[in-house]
Amino acid sequence: MIGFSEEQLLLDIKLPVTPSLNNFVPGRNFELIQTLKKTLFFHEKERFFYIWGNSGCGKSHLLQAVVGFYLQSKDAAYYFPGEISQGVQLIDDPRCVAIDDVELLDDAAQVALFNIYNQFREDGNAILLVSGLFPPVQLNLRRDLVTRLGSGLVYQVHELTEEEKIKALQQQAIERGFVLKYAVCRYLLHHTQRDLSSLMMILDALDRFSLVHQCQITIPLLKKLLNGKL
């Protein structure tokens, strides 16, 4: 039979999915997603965003999605994961800079971010998107930087509830042409990584795994896939 080998399917679980605003399940973050989309298409005047929330809630996905949007449009954009290289020069008049995990920035990086903010405020066109674990007032950073981070739009990124994740998995399954039973979703949530990106990658592998074996997606089939992965 022509198809994917089990080894290929298990490797697929580890393949990254390109983040976008369209493949981010909003849940209680609908207003944030709509605001970001409006910003990308010049319908929102605010250019400074600070988003915060627990690890795994989707902050990095959102930052990378916005940067990716500009890169696909051939515009200059930068993503910094918890650090800013010393002496970094933002060339080509960037449209967007995203700083992830701002609480990890050292003193030099905080100065760099402070300068980026001031540069963008003078230019008036580029977007600065920063994420952190805590709201601005709780950040242990330079006070002048904290003030600037809190001066734009501030949003908490809410993690999806278990029921919202189940609904998202079932909806994605329908779009792929099959039905994912509630019990299978529950097992998946309680025996794998619970962030939505990992769940969707496993869903893709599970879909192909079921096609290879020509059988319905059940908990025993899911166990077989996960045991092979481990």
Question: Could you explain how this protein is built, in words?
Answer:
This protein has 230 residues and is of the alpha/beta class. It has two domains: 6-18 and 160-229, Helicase, Ruva Protein, domain 3 (Orthogonal Bundle); 27-156, 3-Layer(aba) Sandwich (Rossmann fold). The chain has helices at residues 6-12, 30-40, 59-72, 107-123, 143-149, 162-175, 182-191, 196-213, 219-229; strands at residues 48-52, 77-81, 96-100, 127-132, 153-156. A five-stranded parallel β-sheet has the order 2-3-4-1-5, with helices on both faces. Helix 1 runs antiparallel to helix 8. The radius of gyration is 20 Å and the shape is elongated. The two termini are 25 Å apart.
Q: Numbering strands along the chain, what is their spatial order in the largest sheet?
A: 2-3-4-1-5
Number of helices: 9
What is the radius of gyration?
Answer: 20 Å
Structural class: alpha/beta
Largest sheet, strands/sense/barrel = 5 strands, parallel
CATH architecture of the largest domain: 3-Layer(aba) Sandwich
